[in-house]
Fold:
Amino acid sequence: MSKFLSLILVFIFLALGGCGIYKKVDARKVSPNVNDRVKENLEKGKGYKIFDARRNIMGGGAFQFANSNGLWRASLDVIDFMPLTSVNYSGGIIITDWYSDSKNPNESIKISIRFLTNEIRSDSLDIKIFSRKCDNNSFNCKFTNSSENLVAELNKEILKKAAIYKNEEENKK
Structure:
């Protein structure tokens, strides 16, 4: 039985070898260093690494999680008083629910923050703030975009807090 099984395996390897699955490689063109070959294959998208602590965070297939992204953490910290409707880290967006304080129950705001990049820069966020003013019966509401001053102030606060998080992370290293 084992001779029959080994004969079948040899036949399968010979048959697959003729199908073009295995490519001939010139040893002069391939680096003898394993790490160089792995790096080249990863750059070409031919593989992936599991359990690699030294992986480039922004590299192919690697995800930068929210707790290590200072801009994301800072945004959530700045608007932590507001209820959240949608938070999608992989999509790069935070949307709050309508929020009003007890002093003005007929006026409320909603904030949308889109992340354009993970870098801490003035153009890394697209912030939109919407205002809603309703009559006393709450059926007749008027929606408007808030002033640029409020957007600029929110952007400044998020960037300041993100810079603090980045400095703390660098000091840990």
Confidence is low (pLDDT under 50) at residues 55-63. Helices lie at 2-17, 34-43, 70-78, 148-172.
